[in-house]
Design goal:
Helices cover 42% and strands 21% of the residues. It contains 10 helices and 12 strands. The strands form 3 sheets. Strands 3, 4, 7, 9, 10, 11 and 12 form a 7-stranded mixed sheet that branches.
């Protein structure tokens, strides 16, 4: 299915061939059902949220997934043509050990990741296709993405289908060769992907540098180049954004919020939070509640 996409540019596939492979897969595998996944606060989270909107569509085989739905966790097999639209603060758990193939589109703030993965026993095949776009999403695609997220929150699958199709068609335009891409962009995008994919891990510079295959000092320079922040400050920004989202839910304990934000020491989390916001997490939560009254 993705044989044409096997030419590599560094760690990535040829985007033109990957886009053609995705379009061919979508023709051969029409969408049967679109399932929105929302962050239901009544359900204990089984995994950390990524903070981005993710689309996962089964192209072949069965993918056993757990996700929250109203007053319970759902666990079932997604089959060919079924898709999940996972909203930014929601979570899913892939529990499949059997062979299957999926299309994944992950919408990061500054780039889009396209993947066609064959998975067996939790491992991806070597023939995977992956490409990370060279910049932010075009305005039309971004508007459709926002519309998709809004309609997903209503759980109206019939309204989601036309927006979903339009968004897929538009966002595939991002899967192309980007001219004049800055040096080091691909490495930095991989680092950002890991930061969002492994939100529950206590990330640090050496771990990230080892994962993407660069020297820690080089990773720090890349972060400064693309975000104007130190790596430590960037990690804190991402974690605090996630913490603030969960603190708005009065049912979540401070300890749960800490874990979802990627911290494992409550004292350190409280100190860091107060340093950023001038308030403890509990004080910040109360101030937000008073503001919305």
């Amino acid at each position: 299915m993705v044989k044409q996409a096997q030419q590599r540019h560094g760690d990535q596939c040829d985007p033109v061939n990957l886009r053609a492979a995705i379009q061919e897969a979508l023709i051969k595998c029409p969408i049967k059902q679109i399932i929105p996944v929302l962050p239901w606060r009544e359900i204990p989270a089984k995994a950390a949220p990524s903070g981005i909107l993710r689309i996962t569509m089964v192209l072949g085989g069965k993918r056993h997934v757990r996700w929250p739905e109203k007053n319970k966790n759902v666990f079932r097999a997604l089959t060919r043509g079924e898709a999940l639209v996972v909203t930014p603060m929601a979570w899913t758990q892939n529990k499949t050990r059997e062979r299957h193939r999926v299309l994944c589109i992950d919408c990061f703030p500054t780039f889009t990741r396209f993947m066609v993965n064959g998975i067996h026993g939790g491992r991806r095949y070597p023939r995977d296709g992956i490409f990370l776009s060279g910049g932010t999403m075009a305005p039309t695609a971004r508007a459709l993405l926002n519309a998709l997220a809004q309609v997903a929150a209503t759980e109206d699958q019939e309204r989601m289908k036309p927006i979903f199709h339009c968004f897929i068609n538009e966002v595939l335009n991002e899967c192309r060769v980007w001219e004049n891409a800055p040096s080091g962009l691909n490495d930095w995008q991989h680092a950002v992907s890991i930061i969002h994919d492994e939100a529950h891990v206590d990330l640090h510079r050496e771990y990230l540098a080892e994962r993407i295959g660069v020297h820690p000092n080089h990773l720090s320079r890349l972060c400064k180049k693309f975000t104007k922040q130190s790596l430590a400050d960037y990690l804190t920004t991402v974690r605090m954004e996630r913490a603030c989202h969960y603190l708005r839910d009065p049912e979540r304990s401070i300890r749960d919020v800490m874990v979802f934000a990627g911290y494992h020491d409550e004292t350190h989390f409280r100190k860091r939070f107060k340093l950023v916001f001038g308030q403890t997490p509990g004080q910040w939560r109360k101030s937000q509640h008073a503001y919305t009254m």
